[in-house]
Structures are given as structure tokens and as C-alpha cells.
Predict the 3D structure of the following.
Amino acid sequence: MIELKSAAEIGRMAVTGQFVGELLAELSGIAAVGVNLMDLEHHARRRIKERGAVSCYWDYAPSFGRGPFRHVLCLSVNDAVLHGLPHDYVLRDGDLLSIDMAVGVDGWVADSALSVVVGVPDPEDLKVIEATEVALEAAIAAARPGGRLGDISAAIGEVAHTYGYGVNGEFGGHGIGRLMHESPHVANSGRARRGIKLEPGLTIAIEPWFCRTTDKIRYDEDGWTIRSADGSRTAHSEHTVAITADGPRVLTRRPAPGATAAGPAKRPAAAS
């Protein structure tokens, strides 16, 4: 069942979204050559605890994955694109890192993701990141009352094909609100003017993700980490969006670098 949120409830989700956006901005500023993935994970744990928030990832146990997820971030490097497990890995020059997080504050959830390159970037990596960001903005623009869910999916697929990328249909966006995953499923490819009508109060996470040279995926032995089937680099962008009578409202916009509520980002202490 799809639950439409009131203006007040969307406002409460926006509070969570602001925190998520700020923390993602911090993490992207901290991510650099020589930083361990576990440093990022522990930095996020501290910030979530300080805020009195709750991670939606901790103890998450869907049908895929081996055992409950025991981290607050998904950190996916290079050919990994979704659900990457934080682990003892030091970022190297040119690594492409995707950071995904979802938290709840006072019972309302927001979910967002971004991809960055640390060190000297490969232009093709910047291109695939750009494609996900452009697709996300196109999808947000299509999230207007009176439209159809397929308008959002079609916008993502059109951008992917313009950039020369295929679209994998196994994972996409989703409804969000009181829970991290609610109805409806938001596919990353589809037909415009099809699907449910977009009504004010609908809140969704839109998340295009692409692989450079394939639309096929494979799983690591951990049952969580999803990689491109051919080892090509990947990228992932995501925002939580509310459909309002005035158009789409992005709840997880990130502040400009250095403008987070916590002040300038600091290098995290080593993970213990």
C-alpha cells in the first residue's frame, strides 16, 4: 500500500534529509587517498549517534545478503556499485567510491547516495558519475503531480542511453517515509505516461546507478556487495524526493563544501 504524507510529515522527513545531506557532504570531503573505509564508517556512526538518529542499515536483513547488515554505510569501490560492505581497505589514487546511507530521525527516514573519485580521476569514471547525476536531476524534474511513475523511470533510462550505458532492472528506487523501503518500486527504466499517478504526498527515493560497459551484475561471496559483471567501474546517485502540489521537493540536498552544520570536515580518527 502507498502512504501519502501530509505537509507536516514531509517537513519531518526534510529534517532527516537535511542531516543525511550534511553527513554525506562531510563523508565525501573526508574520502581521500590513504583513508580507510572503516574510518568513514566509524565517523558516520559517531555522527549518527550524536544526532540521536537511527541507521536503517544496521540489522537490515533482506532476502539477499548473508546475515544482518552490521554497518551504517554502504561503501562500494570501483566495480562495486551497491550494498558494499565497509571493510579494512585504504583508498588508493583514482578509486571511485560510492557512499549510500539511510537514517531515521524521530521515526522519519531519508536515503541518499553519491559517487566520488579520490585522487586523480579517469575521465571515463567522471563520465559515469555525471550520467547518474544528470539522470537523477532529470528524474526529479519528472516527479510532478499529475504525471506517472513511468515518467521518472523513462527519464532515467533516456539519460543512460544518451550516455551509452545500459540499465539493470534488478535494483532501483523505492517509496520511503516511516520505513526505508515502502511502495512503490521506482525502476531505472520504463515507459512515460505509464504506472501509478504521481500525487502530492508521495515520497520516494530515486536512485539511478550505471556500470560503464555492462548492465549485468554479480554478487560477492559476502552476499551483499553487488558488482558489475565485467569488472567495469560503476556509479550511484540518490535523493529522497517528495511530490508536492508545487512540484518535486528534494529532501536530501547537500550543502556546499565546507558549509555543513557541523563546520568544516575533519579527517576522521583511525578506526579502533
Remarks:
- The first strand starts at residue 54 and ends at 55.
- The longest helix spans residues 7-30.
- Residues 24 and 254 are 7 Å apart (CA to CA).
- The chain is about 25% helix and 25% strand.
